[in-house]
Specification:
By secondary structure, the protein is mainly α. 78% of the residues lie in helices and 0% in strands. Helix 2 (40-49) packs across helix 4 (85-95) and helix 3 (55-74) packs across helix 4. The longest helix is centred in the N-terminal third of the chain and has 33 residues, at 3-35.
C-alpha cells in the first residue's frame, strides 16, 4: 500500500472519531440542559421581583432560562441576547448558587 494513502486514511479516521465523539458530547450536554432541575429558590426570587406572575408564568420563566442556556450551548461562542428581564433575574439568582452554577456550566458547556 502507498504510504500517502495510509496517512490520509489515518487522518480520516482521526477526524471521523473526533466528530463522532463531539456529537456524543453535544448530545449529552443538550440532554443535561433539557433535564436539569433549577433550585426552587430561583422561582421564589422571581416571585419576589414579579409578584404578579402566576405559577404557570413562573414555570415559563424557568423554561426561558433553560432555553437561554440551550441557545448559549448551540451559539458556537457567539453572543446570545437575554430573552427577557424575568429570565435575567432568574439567571442572576442562579449565579448566586456558585457551586451549583459552576457544576451546571461544566456539564452543560
Amino acid at each position: 500500500m502507498d504510504v500517502t494513502f495510509i496517512v490520509i486514511m489515518f487522518f480520516v479516521f482521526i477526524i471521523f472519531t473526533y466528530l463522532v465523539f463531539r456529537k456524543v458530547v453535544l448530545t449529552r450536554q443538550t440532554s443535561f440542559i433539557r433535564n436539569y432541575e433549577f433550585p426552587e429558590a430561583i422561582s421564589y426570587k422571581i416571585n419576589e421581583v414579579y409578584p404578579h406572575l402566576s405559577s404557570s408564568e413562573l414555570q415559563l420563566a424557568m423554561r426561558g432560562l433553560k432555553d437561554y442556556f440551550y441557545l448559549i450551548h448551540i451559539s458556537n461562542k457567539e453572543s446570545v441576547a437575554m430573552p427577557s428581564q424575568v429570565v435575567d433575574v432568574a439567571w442572576h439568582e442562579f449565579i448566586l448558587f456558585t457551586r451549583e452554577y459552576a457544576r451546571f456550566c461544566s456539564k452543560a458547556f
